[in-house]
Amino acid sequence: ETGVTQSPTHLIKTRGQQVTLRCSSQSGHNTVSWYQQALGQGPQFIFQYYREEENGRGNFPPRFSGLQFPNYSSELNVNALELDDSALYLCASSLDRGEQETQYFGPGTRLLVL
Amino acid sequence: AQSVSQHNHHVILSEAASLELGCNYSYGGTVNLFWYVQYPGQHLQLLLKYFSGDPLVKGIKGFEAEFIKSKFSFNLRKPSVQWSDTAEYFCAVNERASKIIFGSGTRLSIRP
Questions:
Q1: Residues 56-85, chain A, touching B (beta carbon < 8 A)
Q2: A85: helix, strand or coil
């Protein structure tokens, strides 16, 4: 257990819909990162939020967006879902935003887009 | 672009065998290196990390890794594996701030 929780655990959507995934970070952790893990692949960095502002982004289109709230919770929003968005979505929290910070991962939300 | 390669997709060993999982990265500057493990049904968790100093780093559960800068490698080792080491292992690197690049993972299966 890492103290990082995610909801829901599983989700089924259809192409074109929008989805919101939620993450609750460890208390005191002001940084959250989101990753997409396709089947058989390693996690791919989507973006990171530090103190409620975006602090870096990977190679994902703008329809992937996020929010971070003062109560250590955060959201990943994906608009106009595509079949290739089917994956496990992981959030990870860390105490701070430095590159040497250990990231603590949640269990993930498995999204299936039909 | 920076990348991480894990050449072994699936490794099968018997208990008590020695383990070495390969990891190579492409970035030539200062990097921070990690090995993460995902046990069946569990969260991804940190095994060990290297930032600077002694290139041989020790992690949890008897794992260690050696950073060889000239070879751009950060291989994971364990002298004697146990059935409970069955898991997926991910090598990762970041050179600045937020972005961690993960390899595609190596699935380790241990025969009891």
A1: 56, 58
A2: helix
Could you say which DSSP state residue A108 is in? -
Q: Using one digit for the tens of pLDDT, what is the confidence trace for A46-97?
A: 999 999 999 889 899 999 999 999 988 999 999 999 999 999 999 999 988 7
Distance, in Å, from the CA atom of A95 to the CA atom of B107, rounded to the nearest integer, reads 29
Q: From the CB of residue B78, how many other CB atoms can be counted at a distance below 10 Å? A: 21
Cβ B43–A1 below 8 Å, yes or no?
Answer: yes
Contact A56 B102 (CB under 8 A): no
Rg from Cα positions in chain B:
13
- Give the closest-approach CA distance of B44 to chain A in angstroms: 6
Per-residue HEC secondary structure of chain B comes to CCCEECCCCEEEEECCCCEEECCEECCCCCCEEEEEEECCCCCEEEEEEECCCCCEEECHHHCEEEEEHHHCEEEEEECCCCHHHCEEEEEEEECCCCCCEECCCEEEEEEC
Q: How far is CA A17 from CA A6, A30, A53, B56, in A?
A: 20, 30, 26, 48
| pLDDT tens-place string over residues A25-51 | 988 899 999 999 998 899 999 999 999
